[in-house]
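Journal club prep, notes for RB
We'll compare a predicted complex against what the paper describes. Inputs for the magnesium ion case:
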Amino acid sequence: MTNAPFITYNSGVNTQPTAAGDGAIRAVLFDLDGTLVLTHIDFSAMRAAVVEVVLAAGIEREAIEGLDTLTTARHASAILRERHGEDEARDLLHRAEESMIAVEMRGLEGAEPAPFAREVLRELADQGIALAIVTRNCRRVTEAAMALCDMACPVVLSRDDVPRYKPDPAHLLDALQRLDVAPAAAVMVGDHPMDIQAGRAAGTRTVGVVTPGRPPDYFVASRPDRVIADLRGLLPFVFGAT
Ligand SMILES: [Mg+2]
């Protein structure tokens, strides 16, 4: 798999590996949705569903303004805990989770592997690279998406499997601990600036995949170590690191 398409910027994006030690990459952490698997999850509908649950519980709209969907559910639950106690807090979180899962499950219809995802996973595994998936999807949707795409990975950490998830670096560090690989010998690969942010905070190298439909300068602000147009571009990055 040579001649992989790179997107290069002339804006000072660092494309050289920067890790200490021998510099070799021993582990790859993948985001799932949009990176390895293409689903049709309607994230606006997901947010709307959670906001509806939160407002129905009597939380003011201002209290959740500017928060992402998952944080909205947790924050609203924390407010309810203070106001009405643990039972109501847990109940709200449960209803919010159920509404999110319903939207996520609907988005699985027609899910397919991202271009070259299976081939690249196989090649990395064959070469002895440790692999993990770190995803904000729930476990049920993660497993269903991977099964639909006939994809397997030795370590898979969904949002249900960790106390803190991306962009919190703890999510990545948990996966690396399970793989027994130091952050400096790992690369985080994702289709969203949040993946890059999490990787940098965890101390890994970072690769951004520009998915179809996104502008080529999508990652300029988050400045990953490399930006690739599809997953084939990951192989020379991993095997070229010294
Ligand atoms: Mg993604």
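Talking point for the session: The mean pLDDT is 90.
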